[in-house]
Design goal:
Largest sheet: 9 strands, mixed
Shape: globular
Oligomer: single chain
Distance between the termini: 40 Å
Number of strands: 25
Radius of gyration: 23 Å
Number of helices: 16
Strand content: 15-25%
Helix content: 25-40%
Strand order of the largest sheet: 2-1-10-9-11-12-13-14-15
Length: 506
């Protein structure tokens, strides 16, 4: 539905021509090293690496892997926090023709061992600070090669050029059913997702990125890191989120990749202290992984920052659509990226395309996720007449009322996000006696409302909700309002944690 011409107008012709295809991560990385060798690639704990210096580290780590028997086609686990060691190991695994299984650093030792068995790991690369996570592997699989991310070699091994269909990366995802599983991303999918991150932004090459999202999350890996390398940009790794704003003041990034909860925090602090906490050099925020409130788009524009909502999935190598017209269409996730095939079946978005995964790793749920070769996202959507995509809900979160009517919580939540002072909200149903009721829980922007002179939050929100209720059909009206005094429980990706039926996790 979207094509290259749609995105071409948002940057100059010379820049747009530089957004090209690569067949593998090896091709992409070597092109960046050749083009940007002397430029700064990564800053981690004060240590700086140019593209050429990082490439030398990657080549040496390929030797470490080779010396431990790893070869093209093998599957290697990677257990490390955000660090240059993670990046070095990830690139080395891929450019030797093996595949990286990304293991979140919070996993316990038994889960790490279980993953080593489930994914058939031929080796595990881990950060030395996480050694206690390897104790069960050492006891039960003593023959499995283990190596730390800081191991080195005085030798180098040349890169391998995998076929575009070869497995590159396995990333954990809840998928369309909520059960944790590994999405299998080929080199073609990863580099295409990386390329998609370059569309719709006027100035995309030679930027300064800031990494705060986990590298084990597809948004942090592909849009935050690999798109930075694709464009010859530099990446500052924030090791401690508590130091985020202090680090931003020193490093002065020009582009941030945020989930809405982080964007909200940065905005609240900017309002509280009367200055832009992201710095005067900040120009663009890419925001996704959870619903983006139009409020964020409008408020960041007042700071001179363009916040661009987007939509993606782990299964699509992150990026499906992006919105370069955020101020005009703040509640849309934009245009579908070039070569992405999509159709809407009973309101649900189905996808095909070069950035799509090759199924879940050894998981029987593949049969539930696909139909006639189409991946069923589980997301309910609509397109407007101009081709803008809107997410209206999740199939699994549909509330079926006793009357037989269906209610999409996400579609209702969009309406209540328009109330001034709503930071986040959640709609779900409860049964009291024999009556089924719709509940709206609201996380308020207390400081914003107090500045406006609102003292009675309950009365204020009751009045505002009733205004919206008046425009809704009877079966969609909110029956009960809950005002929260603390944040929602959130997933590692900072989404509101819902139970499988869409209700709130406590």
């Amino acid at each position: 539905m979207a094509n290259y011409n749609i995105f071409a107008k948002y940057t100059d012709e010379e820049t747009f021509k530089k957004i090209v295809d690569y067949s593998s991560l090896t091709d992409m990385w070597e092109s960046s090293v050749k083009s940007y060798g002397d430029r700064l690639a990564v800053i981690d704990e004060g240590a700086e690496y140019t593209y050429s210096q990082l490439d030398a580290e990657v080549a040496a780590f390929r030797a470490v892997l080779t010396e431990r028997g790893i070869k093209a086609g093998d599957v290697v686990g990677l257990l490390a926090p955000n660090s240059v060691g993670f990046i070095k190991a990830y690139l080395a695994i891929n450019t030797i023709g093996a595949a990286a299984v990304l293991l979140p650093a919070h996993l316990d030792a038994m889960t790490v061992f279980g993953c080593s068995m489930k994914f058939g790991l031929k080796a595990l690369v881990y950060d030395a600070a996480l050694e206690e996570k390897t104790v069960i592997i050492k006891a039960k699989s003593p023959a499995l090669p283990l190596m730390t991310t800081d191991e080195n070699s005085d030798k180098t091994v040349p890169a391998v050029y995998p076929d575009e269909s070869a497995l590159s990366t396995v990333i954990f995802t809840g998928g369309t059913t909520g059960n944790s599983k590994g999405a299998r991303l080929s080199h073609r999918a990863v580099v295409r997702g990386t390329k998609n991150g370059c569309y719709g932004i006027k100035e995309i090459f030679n930027q300064r990125y800031f990494l705060v999202l986990p590298l084990t999350h597809v948004f942090g890996l592909i849009r935050n890191t690999l798109s930075a390398f694709y464009t010859g940009s530099s990446l500052f790794i924030c090791r401690n989120n508590k130091n985020m704003f202090k680090d931003i003041a020193v490093y002065r990034p020009t582009i941030m990749i945020f989930v809405p909860a982080l964007a909200e925090m940065a905005l609240n602090l900017s309002k509280q202290f009367g200055r832009n906490m992201l710095g005067e050099d900040m120009k663009t925020i890419i925001c996704g992984a959870a619903p983006v409130s139009p409020y964020l788009v409008r408020e960041y524009a007042k700071l001179g920052i363009t916040l661009l909502p987007g939509y993606g999935l782990t299964e699509s190598a992150n990026l499906v659509s992006g919105n370069p017209e955020a101020l005009a269409k703040p509640d849309s996730v934009g245009f579908v990226y070039p070569d992405m095939e999509c159709k809407v079946v009973d309101g649900e978005l189905w996808l095909k395309g070069p950035n799509m995964m090759d199924g879940y790793f050894g998981d029987e749920e593949n049969a539930l996720a696909y139909e006639d070769g189409w991946f069923k996202t589980g997301d309910l959507v609509r397109f407007d007449d101009e081709g803008f995509l809107y997410i209206t809900g999740r199939v699994k979160e549909i509330i079926v009322l006793s009357s037989g009517e269906n209610v999409s919580p996400a579609e209702l939540e969009v309406k209540f996000y328009e109330i001034d002072g709503v930071q986040d909200c959640l709609v779900y149903d409860i049964t009291e006696g024999n009556a089924q009721q719709l509940v709206l829980e609201i996380l308020p922007r207390v400081s914003v409302l107090k500045a406006r002179g609102v003292e009675d939050l309950d009365a204020y929100f009751k009045e505002e909700v009733e205004k919206i209720n008046a425009s809704l059909p009877a079966f969609e009206k909110i029956n009960k309002i809950v005002i929260r005094d603390s944040d929602f429980v959130r997933t590692p990706a900072m989404k509101i944690a819902r139970n499988k039926n869409g209700t709130l996790k406590n």
